[in-house]
Design brief:
- The chain has three helices and 14 strands.
- The strands form seven sheets. A two-stranded antiparallel ribbon has the order 1-2.
- The radius of gyration is 30 Å and the shape is elongated.
Amino acid sequence: MRGVSVLALVAAAACTKPNPNRCCADEADCETKGIPVGSLCDQGLVCRGNQCISQPCTSNEGCDPAAPFCIEELCAEQCAEDEQCPGFGGDTGASFCVGGGCVTCRDATDCTTADAPYCDSGACRACAAHNECASELCDFDTGRCIEESTVTYAAPTGSALSDCTKVEPCTLARALAIIDVNRPNLKLAVGTHTNPNATWRDMPVR
């Protein structure tokens, strides 16, 4: 009799073990179907009708939005490399695989349009701060980064003889003396700037 009881307990335990082939789309779906939250399919399997199944493919076009990437002839939910982007139905501009998804950019070097020069969370956008530009100068009216070649750079510790570049900034007095139509933008590093006619303090803007 004791042996029978043990067998009954083992059978009950086996019935409560999670089915590794079951899956759910989100927390609400999990609760509705009585599936443990976070039940996801292994790579190479996709969730269809709360079951993990394989979906054969020869290219991304043979997949669908729920599993848009064709990897090793099976549709997958996440990309593994750039060549798999943008996936089925994805944005054609999203050509970089980051964290299993396709994005427009990894960093600012991938943002090639003047009105969206900054990479933010995988998408290019207008600049909103000076430090988002390589030139360290953002035109807030247009959201564009001002070209470094058009900027005259000055710093409190700048040289009185330099060409007022970002790498070798000059004094305020020299910057005011050489600024012209070719370099009309003045960028002042944080600090106190002095010249014979004025003293400017903490103005890291043009």
